[in-house]
Structure formats: structure tokens, C-alpha cells
Amino acid sequence: MTPEELAGLACEELIESRLVTQPESRKWQLRHGPFEESDFTQLPESNWTLLVQAVDQWVEDVADIKTLFNFLPSWRIDDIMISFAAQGGSVGPHYDYYDVFLLQGMGERNWKVGNRCDSDVELLPGEELSLLRNFEATAQFNLTAGDALYVPPRFAHWGTATSESLCYSIGFRAPSMAEMIEGFSDFIIKDQDPSERYEDNVAQTGLRSAEIRPEFLDNSFRQLTKQLAEKQKFAAWFGCNVSQPKYPELIQPLDDEISPEAFASLVNEGIQLAKNPSSRFAFMESTAKDCVLLFVDGAMVSFPIKLLSNIAAFCETSEMVPGTAGDLLADPDIAELLRQLLNQGSLLASA
Ligand code: SIN
Ligand code: CO
User: Fold this and answer.
1) Which residues does ligand 1 sit against, CB inside 6 Å?
2) Residues 214/218/221/222 CA torsion (nearest 10 deg)
3) Degrees to nearest 5, angle at CA 128 with 124 and 133
4) What is the whole-number distance in angstroms between the Cα of residue 95 and the centre of ligand 2?
5) What is the pLDDT of residues 221-280, one digit of tens each?
6) Which chain residues have CB less than 5 Å from ligand 2, an ion?
7) Max alpha carbon distance in the chain (Å)?
8) Measured in angstroms, how far is the CA atom of residue 100 from the centroid of ligand 1?
9) pTM
10) Closest ligand 1 atom, residue 96 Cα
């Protein structure tokens, strides 16, 4: 990427971008995009940073960087954010809740890394940026083009551009417990039997009539934890959750659905399919049910276990030509899946 290309993306309505300026030392200001060309021409020579989120969803070469991280589960990656910093630019000392790999593009950046932070660490006023009031570096690295620095969750860090520089942040997903509890509860709520209610398991007798005695609590607690301890349901929810797209609005169904017959003729004509860059794919072997669960964009489809290697290959490939010789996707069930994914916008027909 060039800084100009990045600035161009930051002017787009659908792309999330931020500009961090430093009106004085140890003071940072945040503005949200989309920006206009004139916003950039008014900037000073130094001490500012432009950050653009999820560039991997817009620029194929940037999406390809994710293949460098194939040694980690792909569903853990959230997005690739790119920042351009003018000389001296930084977003201030802070910590993130997730793992991040900072991959240096053009120019140089100095990274100071501090200790692991607790949630009660003191912050500078200014809610949105959440900058640390006290930052003490325990290590320092000068990154030049091609260098990468891994920062584990919650470790304080502070990157300052020593020359005009681009940094690619490969950010990972880290759902909070609050999100997990809420998400899984929502998922199991729809299967609940409304007739299943609180019931007394012991006779309600006693001297203190307002008292909630432990034996009354126990039954209810057992009922509730039994629902939460359903591992298979949790597995289904987990797969759906980690495959939730970051920007669902970028996955749009086709205006005119393609019928099975029309899809079969497209396959005969040699249709090429590519994954929507905003779509997410993952799979899980379910030994309990002897099947393979495929997760696409927050939904689950189950296949017989004999299709495990086909599904695994499908999750890894970015482009496919169904119906070609030796095609791993030749199974009729998978062909039908491809048709449905094309209709819902998770797959795109390429020319
Ligand atoms: C930056 O690119 O300057 C900020 C990235 C980060 O600290 O997470
Ligand atoms: Co950070």
C-alpha cells in the first residue's frame, strides 16, 4: 500500500478510519472518518497518524498477508488495520485486549513495550483513546520494512514513527466473557421449553418465611447450569460466533436467486467462484455426532464425516472452479452448498 492509497480508503463511506493528531506533547486527539482530501492537506508535517480498519476486506494483496499466519487458526484473525504515521506520529501508550502482530511496511517505527495491564490501570482523560497515564517501557524495538512484532493481549505498547511509516496490524479476535455469555444465552433461549419452570424440590416449611434457603436455590441452579453445560450446543454456537463477519452489510444476497438448474449450467460453463473477502469460514469435526460442521458467516451446516477433507479444502481455498477434474467440491451436497452461498453473497462469481 502507498500512503495515498490508504488516504483514499479513509475517504470511503463504508470503511472505518480514524485520525489521531497530537496538538501538544502527551496530548492526543481522535477524529473518525470518512475524511475528505482537504482534511489531509490541512495536516501538519509531523505528529499524526491515520488508521484504516479491515483493509484486507478491500485490497486483495493485503488479504494475502493473512496466509503468512496460517500457523495459527484463521478464525482467530479479526482484520488487518493499516496505519500511516507522519514523522513523530503515534496513537499514544495503550494496551489492547487482543493479540496483535505489528508488521512494518515502508519507513521505520520505534515500539516501546511495557508491562501487562490490569483493567484498573490509570488512564489519561479522554474516553475514546484509553491512553495510559503512566507508561514504563521494559523493551524497545526499531522496526524497519518487513519486521514484525508480536504484542500479547493487555501488554502496554507505544509505537512512534521515526520516519513516515506504514504499519500493518494483524489483529486477533478476543470475545469478552460478557459477549460469550450473552451470545450463548441468546443461542440456547430459542430451544427452551416454556413449560420448564422453577419448581420447589423440598417442602417450603420453616420459621423464617422470607428466607431463601440454600435447598430452594440448589434445584434452580442445577437446572440452569445443566442448560449452560451442553457442550454440543456450545460447540455449535462457538463456530457460529467465530465465523460472524466483521461487516455483515458487505455480504449481500443476489437480487435474483440462482436455481439448482441454473447453477448446474453455470458449472458446465466453467463458472469461477471466489470467497467474499468479508466472509468467514471455519469447520469442526464433531466426533460425538460423526459429522463435520461447517460454519459460514455465523451459520452452521452439517455434513457426513466422509466429506471432512473436502470441507477442510473448501475452507482453505479462496477461489474455486466447481466441476473441474479431480474437484474436491464435486460432491452434490457441496455443490448445493456452493449455490446457496453464492445466493447469500458469501461466494461471488468472478469473470
Ligand atoms: C499504530 O498502528 O500505530 C497503532 C497500532 C496499535 O498500537 O495497536
Ligand atoms: Co495497540
Assistant:
1) 49, 83, 85, 91, 96, 100, 157, 159, 167, 169
2) 170
3) 15
4) 6
5) 998 999 999 999 999 999 999 999 999 999 999 999 999 999 999 998 989 999 999 999
6) 96
7) 82
8) 9
9) 0.93
10) 8
pLDDT at 336 over 90: yes
From atom 4 of ligand 1, which residue's Cα is the shortest distance away?
A: 91
Q: What pLDDT, in 10s, does the model give residues 131-177?
A: 999 999 999 999 999 999 999 999 999 999 999 999 999 999 999 99
Domains of the chain, CATH where assigned: 3-172 (2.60.120.650), 176-192+227-240 (no CATH), 248-350 (3.40.366.30)
Q: Compute CA distances 320 → 240, 274, 324, 339, whole Å.
A: 23, 6, 9, 13
Q: Identify which ligand lies nearest to the alpha carbon of 170.
A: 1
- Closest ligand relative to 85 C-alpha: 1
Ligand 1 centroid to residue 91 C-alpha, Å: 7
